[in-house]
Amino acid sequence: MLLYEKITLSLFPICREIMVNYNAMPNSLYKTECNRFNPSNHNALFKDSNICVQAMHYLTSIMFVNDNKLRKSACEYLYYWIFYTFNNINNIENNKKKYDDILNLYKSFLNEEHICKNYSKSSNEDFMSILKAMYKIRNYIKEINNENIHETYNDKKFLIELDIIKKPYNEQWVAPVIEPSTPILIPCKETKIATPIIITLFSILLICVLSFILYKYTILGSFLCPNKKGLKTNRNNIDEELNESLLLGTSLNILNDNIYKLLYK
Questions:
Q1: Residue 47 falls inside a structural domain
Q2: pTM given for the model
Q3: How many domains does the chain have?
Q4: 231 occurs within a structural domain
């Protein structure tokens, strides 16, 4: 089965609910029109005026559907509703004719084309075979519901096995709808801004004290302290004597001599 057919059939229960709930709607608008409608002029389309009112209210409800998938399914559900409502529907031609007659009747009431007119040609033999299969399943379920199985089959073992099979389906039908839970926000504890500042300052002070102790009272200080430079010394060209730097204030006349002024230690 094609994907679009699966989507269409999955929405049929919603369409059926729309069709069945027509009794809750005020039907005075269509009741008068359906009562004076002559069935013989439309191939005995509605021998019962209630069926006419139901169909018109269903088509009116579809016009307010905004979802395109649901709208398409609702129009195709009308084919299925025609199939099991009218007993003389046995082929696709009769089904399409009833479908078009109902839409034409709606147009005569409200003087506007219905959106389901766009799907009047969407039905085919495959779709018709699906409708027939659904109709058979529907009748089969109705027959089972009308029979009292416990009286027909008085076998205790059979009834126990039947209850086991029915249990998961019954639980699925009565299972409550769980609404999505609202996310719970955990409140955050308020943190004082002074605490991290004090911790930071205390850490910096502690690092400075430890660095001073290591530098002053341990051998690591010698590695951290740069080597002291002594007095600037120069090597004399003669006998490699060491010359001390001249003191500040030495006369410039002395510097004019061609020989070094040696200050021997």
A1: yes
A2: 0.48
A3: 1
A4: no
